């Protein structure tokens, strides 16, 4: 579970099997394990994305 505090209240997300799900209400955290966040340098662990090749123009249609 991830709780994000905003000016309008808290927003909750569940991360499970590599997927992120938003929740409509606060979850029960009775059996939750709290993890400390670790600060990392910007870009750490991210590979650089290469730009996509431009799309080729569409050939005009032949007259019918």
Give a verbal description of the structure:
The chain is mainly beta and 64 residues long. 0% of the residues lie in helices and 28% in strands. It is elongated, with a radius of gyration of 22 Å. The relative contact order is 0.15. The mean pLDDT is 85.
Produce a short descriptive summary.
Helices cover 0% and strands 28% of the residues.
User: Which parts are unreliable, with pLDDT below 50 for 5 consecutive residues or more?
Assistant: none
- Measured by DSSP, the beta-strand proportion falls in 25-35%
Q: What overall form do the CA principal axes indicate?
A: elongated
Report the radius of gyration as a whole number of Å.
Answer: 22 Å
Let me know the largest β-sheet. 3 strands, antiparallel
Number of helices: 0
Give the helices and strands, then pairings.
Layout (H helix, E strand, L loop, with lengths): L1 E5 L2 E8 L2 E5 L41
Antiparallel strand pairs: 1-2, 2-3
Core attributes:
about 60 residues; mainly beta; three-stranded antiparallel β-sheet; 3 strands; about 0% helix
């Amino acid at each position: 579970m991830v709780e994000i505090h905003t000016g309008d209240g808290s927003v909750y997300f569940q991360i499970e099997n590599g997927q992120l799900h938003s929740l409509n209400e606060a979850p029960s955290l009775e059996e939750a394990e709290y993890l400390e966040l670790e600060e990392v340098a910007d870009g750490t662990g991210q590979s650089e994305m290469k730009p996509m090749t431009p799309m080729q123009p569409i050939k005009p249609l032949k007259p019918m």
